[in-house]
Amino acid sequence: MARRRQLYEGKAKILFEGPEPGTLVQYFKDDASAGNGAKKGVITGKGVLNNRISEYLMLRLHDMGIPTHFVRRLNMREQLIREVEIIPLEVVVRNIAAGSLAKRLGIPEGTRLPRSILEYYYKNDSLNDPMVSEEHITAFGWANSHDLDDMTSLALRANDFLSGVFLGVGIQLVDFKLEFGRLWEGEEMRIVVADEISPDNCRLWDAKTSEKLDKDRFRRDLGRVEEAYQEVARRLGILPEAANGDMKGPEVMQ
């Protein structure tokens, strides 16, 4: 395994120095967490499946003209991505009431919303990722009005497309989280989709039974977590080349 310099480790992924300037290697872990790290565990094979699912969805978005940081998958657990300046916001698109929205507003979970709703959250674990408004975002300089326009447009386009992709395999896209980054190409900058798109950051329900096929099975101790991730991959036609968990992490350069 190639020795690479580790740059960052989060709850679900590790970033390593890329093979050429302007690139990074993103490694998907099996570690799982909920409640900003209050609950921790391992979902066997999650990293392999999320790598493949995110690759598939990022490529589909690219084909639709939605720019992303994804370059190519390297192996079962790693993908090559473009290095971007991450905007410290999570953009959540909601189609059906679930999770914190249902609790905050007292809406029964499963209620279809009158239209898709966008929410912004400030990425800060120590503050529990508080919900923020456009006024907060522009006042504190996390993004400007043009950035927000681009992020909103890309998020809504991604929602329309991904909703269709999932519905085509019998899955409802209840809500999902996107992160964005600034990609610099010389003096030019554009906003691109970053991070990942997987059952870790999407709520996915079976279209007929509303069975949960995402990380809520871990959050709520529903069991059969690995099977849910596998079912999403199976429906999307994604088959890992080797058994889940076969691949060890890259050797870290100190």
From TrEMBL:
PROSITE patterns: SAICAR_SYNTHETASE_1 (PS01057), SAICAR_SYNTHETASE_2 (PS01058)
Any one of the GO CC terms: cytosol
The organism's place on the tree of life at top rank: Bacteria
Pathway: Purine metabolism; IMP biosynthesis via de novo pathway; 5-amino-1-(5-phospho-D-ribosyl)imidazole-4-carboxamide from 5-amino-1-(5-phospho-D-ribosyl)imidazole-4-carboxylate: step 1/2
GO biological process, one term: cobalamin biosynthetic process
Annotated CDD domains: SAICAR_synt_PurC (cd01415)
GO molecular function list: ATP binding; phosphoribosylaminoimidazolesuccinocarboxamide synthase activity
Alphabetized Pfam families for the sequence: SAICAR_synt
Enzyme nomenclature, EC number: 6.3.2.6
Reactions this protein catalyses: 5-amino-1-(5-phospho-D-ribosyl)imidazole-4-carboxylate + L-aspartate + ATP = (2S)-2-[5-amino-1-(5-phospho-beta-D-ribosyl)imidazole-4-carboxamido]succinate + ADP + phosphate + 2 H(+)
N-terminal signal peptide: none
Keyword tags: ATP-binding, Ligase, Nucleotide-binding, Purine biosynthesis
Record domain SAICAR synthetase/ADE2 N-terminal: where: 6-235
Gene3D superfamilies, A to Z: ATP-grasp fold, B domain, Phosphorylase Kinase, domain 1
Sequence similarity: Belongs to the SAICAR synthetase family.
The protein, known as: Phosphoribosylaminoimidazole-succinocarboxamide synthase
